[in-house]
Every structure is written in structure tokens, then in C-alpha cells.
């Protein structure tokens, strides 16, 4: 405790080194004073109270307590002095009607498909309001077929199956969660390979007893715990499946259910490892490769059969009212420039970790700004807080709102800052690299709760402890932020409209196995996560400082040298990706010619040799190489001009307008190949990874999927956008230098 108190005192006494980026000397002094006042306000005891209230009952989209929470949030924002309202949409949200899973042969087993209450955890017993375990947007279906185990169910797993000579045509596949991929990929890839049904289970190796003690003793998944979740094809477009690119208002034109492309083609059901074990134990056929084996006390076989399974899934295909709570403080000087902050309020069940741990932090930011207003503070720009509904189903609330307000947002939005869940540990940030330097500055001004360091310093030392990251963490001025993938509400802002976005959390010290189960609740969180809510306070301090600093900057703090450095890395990766594809295919063809596969095959364990493949052609990367150079040069010119400029005399309104357009320049209205909703040419969730980002996705995915002509065309398109970006930055530099 002493060390922590000292740490706060030292950090507070540390002299500010120079004005904040984008601030004059005078305005920087004022800003730092308000920020220090702001950071002293968030209170762990209040975070705890918000969580207790918001997680008191299950509150999925369309539930009575979901609406109750939205109204409570609205009242809070109003109480704190915000202009606030609820915006309603009506997206498709299928809910469970029938779920059945039986093993018919060689032995009989009926899956329980039920999460039992845990004694001592009161909300786990709220049976009536808990939505049953299922995957939303699964196709209805009733199938009986042999079972095949397909590991994570990703494309490379099916390549491996083909080497075993195993086909999944007409089969029901059982896949496990994990492997870093979006759950909706599993039924998509299974259907592409001809499977008739898909089961997804949580293996104890991933988040059960293999990782640590299970709930309630520990944080990990008990044997009957199930991960609910959406399986819509969000990488095509997120949001309401029936109104792509348009808001799901009452009178909106809707696709027919049969024409909605983001619904799965086959029935899908998630199950616990308690229910999965009898099914997996009944499989024979080849023994699964070592990397495919989980932590159940069985030998993992692939099948097919003799396990025969009956799977039945049916949903009520209804639309449900969705309640986004939108609250704003109008800007005093630049009301037409908006800084946005968001977190969802809906949960799959009680949702203490996901999303309330981070929503509570956002609420403390709003309350703290309300307190500052009573002390005479007003932001220069407009600040907008958004508590989204329907995130769990497929980013419904944020996507529909962004689609409804696309024109205004394109004209007015400066940046969007998102969070979704929060724990103890190290600052995690992903998002637009134009804001990388800015966020590094913010992180240096927030105290870490468990050390006497700033959250920036603690993260730097954490990275130094990893051999792969060590040198860069020591040498580079800014700690890198990750590229934005998908899986939370920043997606529509960055990927659809090109609004610079950041996604923030603290994590790394506590694992968990309660994700999307009834056990993600107040009891679990207050026993196994950020139990004293000090990291909730740190998140409020970090995101809130970022909002304040963006809202009050004389000149927006965008930086392009970090972006240029990142683009250069991505371009290098693309060069290497092509080279590796060329080398791998050449090597495999050579081994086929040499007879390696025939010579090493064990006749008692038959395998199928790989087929010859055509060598990938050379691609001309020179347009991208040149664009990366132009961008780096323009970024340097801008930094020099900024360093020499007197902001007091700069044409700030015009400059800010130019900077607001900078991320939009990286988009193309035509969108990515095959998925026009995704318009950003530098960041997108991967079609075959989902959560994971694909950078320069048009080129990268074409190379990965061996569409060479498309890869060449996409090189040209990405290069053109980067040249346009360089032109914009040059223009800003010239304006500053004048
Ligand atoms: Zn969430």
C-alpha cells in the first residue's frame, strides 16, 4: 500500500515535459490541470455498485432487464448533466425454440445442454431469465449423421483431414473453441466442406481445468459451462443480417430470411466438455495428431464414426427492439467535431466481465466529466458517450447506429474509443496507427494500480521481458498498438466509415473460463478478477484522459510517422508471405517428385499424399513500395512542420478538417473484394480468422488464397490510397509551414 501511495505522489509531482501534442503552451497547462482533476475522480466503490446493479439479472438483447438497464443508464447520463436519449432499432435476433443432441451409437447419450446453478453464487440460479445455451443465427436443422472430430475447424484442419483420407461430406463435425478464430468460422468452413451439422465444445485445455481450478473454486470453466455466441458471418458484414449497410428501423426494407447471407448454412450448437466427452470417446478411426488433442481423459480419435449423432436446432426468427443509449456534452468551441466513446451494455447472461467490467469504467468517465462541468469545465469539441445494445449478437447496436448516422459521422467524427471487458494487468491497445503516439502519451500519465509505475512504463517493461519484443520496446519511442481486428463495437467506425478508433483494456494477470456462460457474474468477478476494481479505475482514467485530450486539442494529435512505419512493416510481411508461398509449394512439389510421401507412409495408417500445385507467379510490389516511401517522407515533413509551427498563428480549423479526413483516405467506397461493407484498405477482420486482423487485407487475403491476379490489382488499389494519404499529409505539412 505504501509503495502505491508513494507512486501516486511521485507521478503527480513529476514535471510535465513540454506542451501536450497539439496544444499551445497556455492551453496545455490548462488541459493538464483539468486532466489531473479528472483522474482523481473515478472511484472503485462506485464501479462496484454499477456492476452490482447492471448484472443483477440476465440482460441479453430483447430481455426485460436489458431494457431496464438501458433506462437506468439513460437516467444516470441525465443526472450527470448530459443530453441523453435512447435510439431504438429492430434487428433480427433468433432465440432458442428447440435444441437436441444425442449420441445414438455405439452407445446412447443425451446431452444435458444445461448449466447448473452453483451454490453460493446467487445469480447463477436465475434459471427463468437465462437464455439457453445456443449459437445465435444458426440455421434450423434436424440431422442424423456420423461424427468427425475436426480440431478448431479451420481451413488448415481440413487440409490435414484430407491427408488422413477423411471427408466430412454429410457428417456432423465436432470442433473445439479456441485457436484464435471467430466462432462463426467453424460452421462456415464445415459447410464449405460439405458437413451437415456442426458442434462446438469448450475443451478443458483451452479454458477449463487444464488452465487452473474451475469455478466456483477458481476462475475456469466447470464441466457443464457452455460458451454461447453468435455465429453470423460478421466478416461479410456485421449488424442486422436483414439490412446490410442500412439501419434496421421499423420501416426499413429487409431481406427475406432465405436471402440473408450472414446466417449459417448448417445447424450449429455449442456444448460443454461434460457433454462433449461421451461423443469424442465414441469416435474411432485415426488417432488425432498431437496438436489436435485436448485435455479430456480420453484418446482423441478423428472418426468418422462409429459415433452416430442426432442434432436438432430450431429458433424463433423474430426481430427484437434494441436500445442504444446515446449521451452528449456539446462542445463549447468546435461543436461540429465529435469525440466518441462506447461500450456495450447487453450481455449473453449476467455479463460481469463481458461487458460490465468496462462499461462501469465508461460510466465513471461520464460521471467524472459531469463533476468537471459543475466546476466550470466545458470541452472544446462535442463528446458523445454510447452504451450499445445487441453487441453479442454481431455488433448490432453500434453497426445500426453507425449506418443510421453515416453521413453525420463522416462529417463530424474525430475518433472513437471503445472498450468491452477489463481485468488486471497490462494496457492492451489496438486501433488506428495515426493515434499510436497520442495513446502512448496518455498511457504515460496514468498510474498503474499494482506498481509505482505509469501504465506505459509497466507495459514497456512487460514487453522487455519477452525476447521477441525486447529490442523494439527498448529502442522505439512509442510502444506499438495492434491492428484492429473485429469482435467489438469499433468495427463499424473504423472499417465501414474510416473513423480512427482505439480499443482499450487491461489484461494479462487473470485467465477465465466463464466467457458467455451463466457464471460470468458479480460473484465470479468479485472473487476471481479485478476484485477491488482498481483496474476499472485505471481504464476510466486512461480512456477518459484520451477523450479529454482529443476533445480539447487546438490541433488534433494525429501522427503519421507511426503509421508509415507500420505500413512499411505490413508491406515487408506481404513480400515475405509471397516468397514463403513460392518456397513451400516448390519444396512440396520437389518432395512429391522425389517420392518422399510414398516412401515415408505407414501402410497400417494410410494417408493421402498431397497434390502438386502450380508455382505462384511473381507479383510487382513496386507501387506499394513507392507508396510506403511517399508516406514516410510526408510523415517526416509533417512532424518537422509541427515542431517548427506556432500553433497560436496556424489555420487550425482548416488543419483539423484535413486531419479528420486522414483516416477516410485509407478507405475505398467500393470496399474489399467480395465484401463491400468493409471499406478500409489497411485493416479488416480476416475472412478465415475473424477476430484476427488482416492488414492490407485486399492483397494479403488474395495471396493467402492464391488469387494472384486479384493480389496484383489490390496492390495497385492499396498503393493509390496510400499515395492519396501522403498527398493529404503533405498538404497539412505545407499549411503548417506557411
Ligand atoms: Zn463484449
Q: What is shown here, in short?
A:
Helix content is 39%, strand content 15%. The chain is an alpha/beta fold. Helix 18 runs parallel beside helix 22.
Please describe what this structure looks like.
It is a single chain. Helix 9 links the parallel strand 12 and strand 13 (381-388). The protein is 39% helix and 15% strand. Helix 2 runs antiparallel to helix 17 (534-552) and helix 3 (44-54) packs across helix 9. It is built from 23 helices and 18 strands. The structure holds zinc ion.
Descriptive key words:
738 residues, alpha/beta, 7-stranded mixed sheet, 23 helices, 18 strands, 39% helix, 15% strand, disordered N terminus, binds zinc ion
Low-confidence stretches: 1-16
* Residue fraction in strands: 5-15%
DSSP helix count? 23
Given the helix and strand composition, which structural class is it?
Answer: alpha/beta
Level of helix content? 25-40%
On the 0 to 100 scale, the average pLDDT is: 96
**What small molecules does this complex bind?**
zinc ion
Number of separate strands: 18
From the alpha carbons, calculate the radius of gyration and give it in angstroms: 26 Å
Main sheet attributes: strand count, strand direction, barrel closure = 7 strands, mixed
Strand order of the largest sheet: 1-11-13-12-14-16-15
Distance between the termini: 53 Å
Shape annotation: globular
